[in-house]
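Colleagues,

For the teaching module next term, I've prepared a clean inverse folding example: a structure given as tokens, and then the sequence designed for it. I'd like students to try predicting residues themselves before seeing the answer, so please don't circulate the second half yet.
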């Protein structure tokens, strides 16, 4: 590893950065769909006269439909490539946005939401995987987390759109909110033409010359490009004596065949640990309640005592700004402090904020006849504090970590399983939150999320090793439980550092 650090330049490669930014546009579209629904639900319920149960279904159905996209994205990206899978996701989003924008009734609105959900599944798998595979180890954290910044920006744009278009006539406003979501899809369609294909996917296809060309563009030096190519060739099982200028027949074991068997039926101990880590981090990202805050923040603030629609939407915009600012701040921390430290600090702060939010909302709810101003402000402050801690660690690390830990031939489909768990958990929270607060009160709901966050901290402490600075091809060593092997590796690193 120390030898590679000498080869790799820690400066971010501009071409790799530009490619990751374009790939992240698909995440902006997804974030917009999530954020705009938060405000649009206020107007949809009034215009279409739908019930509370229909509101829950409309809010959460996108995540169940995302399962189709998530479980299809891994195999699709292994077959047609990472770049064209992003293009496919963009086309699906475009169709879903138009369907929702021109929906005359609840049924067609729900259909459009389902179509957009399939695009969500594709986007959540392919954007982080592409960004991880285009990046060098020293800058992988910041580039691979750009999709999460994209989601946060999209959510913020969705909140702002709800605020401004909410001033239009009731029948028109929410439809414009959704239709405008089709615009970024067109931008992505043009931007994707300038993106290179993932060099790791090209090697899997036996296109060594093309992979070498891409790596020379996304690396800062020829030595770095050559080192990365050799690592990828080794991981893909390519004959060391094979000439890089030729196209070879891809190894069947690296072209996506038998991947489900290696992931689920007969995984190695390392792969089993990787899968457990990926499923765990994806489950806890949403089981700790972030979707309840993002999707239903107007209702939370209303419970806290804010009545005006304009003030509710403005307070909601504050959530979006907080999320975007601290997601951006974490960009400068993830490659310096490491994934593990950032994650544990983030979840620790979430625990404190959630118990504070639960306490404040309980006090407000137990005083229905009087306005408890300090509790109202405490509710808003702890809500923002929760979003801040979530954004600075768990939001960012989840997507980087789960996209970087799997071996090359398992990466796309391993990531897709993680996203499937992510979407099911997200859907469960978003489709049950309104019923949950009726059953155990809104304060009780956030106490529950605080308890789940405590379990998450324990899980992360014991099951998630540090991956900072490791190449993608080193991950199997990171997830090896053989203490002797890991000790020898650490001793070797210490000796190199001393030299």
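(Answer key — instructors only)
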């Amino acid at each position: 590893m120390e030898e590679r650090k000498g080869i790799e330049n820690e400066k971010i490669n501009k071409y790799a950065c530009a490619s990751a930014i374009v790939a992240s546009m698909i995440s902006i579209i997804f974030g917009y769909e999530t954020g705009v629904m938060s405000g649009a639900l206020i107007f949809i319920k009034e215009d279409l006269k739908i019930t509370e149960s229909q509101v829950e279904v409309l809010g959460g159905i996108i995540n169940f439909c995302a399962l189709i996209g998530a479980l299809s994205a891994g195999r699709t990206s292994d077959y047609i490539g990472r770049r064209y899978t992003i293009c496919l996701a963009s086309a699906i989003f475009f169709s879903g946005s138009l369907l929702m924008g021109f929906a005359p009734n609840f049924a067609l609105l729900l259909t459009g939401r389902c179509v957009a959900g399939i695009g969500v599944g594709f986007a959540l798998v392919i954007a982080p995987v592409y960004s991880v595979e285009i990046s060098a180890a020293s800058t992988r954290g910041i580039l691979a987390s750009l999709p999460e910044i994209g989601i946060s920006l999209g959510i913020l744009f969705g909140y702002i759109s709800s605020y401004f278009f909410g001033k239009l006539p009731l029948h028109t406003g929410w439809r414009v909110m959704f239709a405008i979501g089709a615009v970024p899809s067109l931008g992505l369609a043009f931007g994707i033409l300038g993106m290179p294909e993932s060099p790791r996917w090209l090697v899997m296809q036996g296109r060594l010359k093309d992979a070498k060309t891409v790596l020379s563009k996304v690396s800062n030096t020829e030595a770095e490009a050559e080192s990365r190519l050799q690592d990828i060739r080794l991981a893909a099982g390519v004959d060391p004596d094979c000439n890089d200028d030729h196209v070879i027949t891809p190894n069947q074991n690296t072209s996506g065949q038998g991947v489900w068997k290696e992931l689920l039926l007969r995984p190695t101990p390392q792969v089993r640990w990787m899968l457990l880590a990926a499923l765990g981090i994806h489950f806890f990202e949403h089981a700790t309640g972030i979707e309840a805050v993002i999707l239903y923040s107007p209702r939370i603030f209303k419970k806290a005592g804010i009545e005006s629609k304009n003030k509710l939407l403005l307070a909601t915009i504050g959530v979006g700004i907080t999320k975007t600012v601290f997601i951006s701040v974490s960009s400068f921390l993830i490659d310096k402090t490491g994934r593990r430290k950032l994650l544990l600090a983030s979840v620790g702060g979430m625990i404190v904020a959630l118990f504070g939010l639960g306490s404040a909302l309980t006090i407000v709810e137990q005083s229905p006849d009087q306005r408890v101003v300090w509790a109202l402000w405490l509710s808003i402050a702890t809500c923002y504090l929760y979003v801040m801690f979530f954004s600075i660690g768990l939001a960012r690390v989840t997507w980087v970590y789960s996209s970087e830990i799997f071996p090359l031939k398992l990466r796309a489909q391993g990531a897709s399983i993680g996203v499937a768990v992510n979407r099911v958990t997200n859907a469960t929270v978003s489709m049950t939150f309104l019923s949950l607060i009726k059953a155990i009160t809104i304060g009780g709901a956030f106490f529950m999320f605080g308890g789940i966050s405590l379990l998450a901290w324990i899980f992360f402490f014991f099951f998630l090793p540090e991956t900072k600075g490791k190449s993608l091809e080193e991950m199997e060593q990171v997830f090896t439980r053989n203490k002797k092997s890991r000790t020898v590796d650490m001793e070797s690193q210490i000796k190199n550092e001393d030299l």
